Write the structure tokens for this entry.
Amino acid sequence: MKNCSKNLGILLLLAAFAILLHGYHPGVEDDGVYLPAIKRHLNPQLYPHDFEFFTLQLQATVFDKLIAGSIRLTHMPAGIATLLWHFASIFLLLWGCWRISRRCFKESYAQWASVGTVAVLLTMPVAGTALYLGDQYLHPRLLATAAILGAIIAVLDRRYVLAAVCLAIAVVIHPLMASFGISYCVFLAWKERPRATAPLLALLFPLGWIFEPTSDAWRAAALTRDYYFLSNWQWYDWLGVFAPIILLWWFRRVSVRGGSTVVAHMTSRLVWYGMFQLAVAVILMLPPSLGG
């Protein structure tokens, strides 16, 4: 119990430190969509004109409804509630990282070093994507990532039904992010029990809307963002794709020699996952309906 309280306290401090380090900036970037949607749920009279700009983008998620519902239930000011949700998202993310690290490393310092590394790198841009590990405001991607980490832990523990539940939560919060989590969990579970991947693969079926044809206006808007198209990537963007795969392959070899079976299994699955996602990205550039 004492160690549990100590670990919980460290995670809470790390979450607070991460916010202090990276800052908290509500209303910027994608929050120009999420925040108005939350506020309109609380007061339908807000944004009487052109509110479809953000409501249409949030059809596939319960995120805005979840946050608005919690505000209505607790009677908190919207600004305080979204900050607390942001803090909770980071805490859950770091908690998931810590639980995974405990399965990878025996030494306590190695476990906390891995969690601390994530905490200080939340706003590091992911190569070529214009995305961060964690945004500086409340974003459904962070909550979905925390759920995905829970699914990864469940797969490592061979609790596949729990993994499917965690991934289902991720799907209703951020469907696109969930698709990445599902695919990695499938790779992670494949070696252990191929039949266990069936309920995980089933979660991909509701994501068919991703492949629906897009409009000319959408393609024109997408062309203003080079990072959406692999053909427009620079050499350093591609370095950000292949360098991690090479490093993970090297980590696997080191882990095998060191006898760390969990790290070896996770890194080998990450290599396959990375190559699979790269192949999917290339294929997605081909259909004209997707703007390729």
